[in-house]
């Protein structure tokens, strides 16, 4: 799954745009994804350049945070690829080592991916090498951590 804004009304791509109302993601995460996309467009000037380096950096930091949250919600069956539009920032891939915190969302994305690729490992798994971030320990308060402890 890829995470990026591109005038599609969503930042979720498997490989095509995925409407938020078909994802079963937590409402708070969907709100944050929408806000991130709006902030991205607001950070660009009329020539689609960043208004400032600070805005580009904030976009990247927020995108990394959202990719991590998506990885936790979807679990170990999904790679979340985030390629920032900030110059000089490498593409990163995120994957949880644990079961999905949101099994309904994982099932919804598996269905979306299966529709387009025949499997939910998708083209992202075959992509060129990127920096990978695995999530070996869920953040405090996540459902995965609660199940372990």
Q: Explain this structure to me?
A:
The longest helix is centred in the middle third of the chain and has 22 residues, at 53-74. The radius of gyration is 15 Å and the shape is globular. The protein is 40% helix and 11% strand. Mean pLDDT is 84; it is low at 117-130 and 144-149. It is an alpha/beta fold and 149 residues long. It has a five-stranded mixed sheet with strand order 2-1-3-4-5, with helices on one face.
Features:
alpha/beta, five-stranded mixed beta sheet, 4 helices, 40% helix, 11% strand, globular
Report strand order across the widest sheet.
Answer: 2-1-3-4-5
pLDDT < 50 runs, ≥5 residues = 117-130, 144-149
Helix segment tally: 4
| Percent helix | 25-40%
Strand content: 5-15%
Which structural class should the secondary elements be placed in?
alpha/beta
What letter string, H or E per element, gives the SSE order?
EEHHEEHEH
Q: Number of DSSP strands?
A: 5
Largest sheet: 5 strands, mixed
The N- and C-terminal alpha carbons lie at a distance of 30 Å
Overall residue-averaged pLDDT value: 84
Count of spatially separate domains: 1
* Net shape: globular
Gyration radius, in Å: 15 Å
Quaternary form: single chain
In short:
This protein has helices at 27-42, 53-74, 103-117, 143-148; strands at residues 2-3, 12-13, 80-82, 92-96, 131-135. The chain has 149 residues and is an alpha/beta fold.
What is the topology?
Layout: E1 2-3, E2 12-13, H1 27-42, H2 53-74, E3 80-82, E4 92-96, H3 103-117, E5 131-135, H4 143-148
Parallel strand pairs: 1-3, 4-5
Antiparallel strand pairs: 1-2, 3-4
């Amino acid at each position: 799954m890829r995470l990026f804004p591109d005038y599609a009304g969503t930042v979720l791509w498997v490989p095509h745009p995925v409407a938020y109302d078909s994802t079963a993601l937590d409402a708070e995460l969907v709100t944050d994804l929408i806000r991130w996309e709006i902030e991205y467009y607001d950070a660009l000037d009329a020539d689609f350049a960043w208004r400032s380096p600070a805005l580009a950096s904030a976009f990247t930091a927020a995108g990394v945070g959202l990719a991590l949250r998506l990885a936790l919600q979807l679990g170990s069956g999904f790679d979340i690829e985030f390629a920032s539009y900030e110059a000089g920032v490498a593409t990163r891939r995120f994957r949880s080592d644990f079961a999905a915190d949101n099994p309904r969302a994982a099932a919804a994305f598996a269905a979306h991916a299966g529709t387009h690729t025949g499997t939910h490992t998708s083209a992202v798994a075959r992509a060129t090498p990127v920096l990978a971030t695995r999530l070996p320990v869920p953040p405090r308060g996540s459902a995965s951590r609660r199940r372990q402890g």
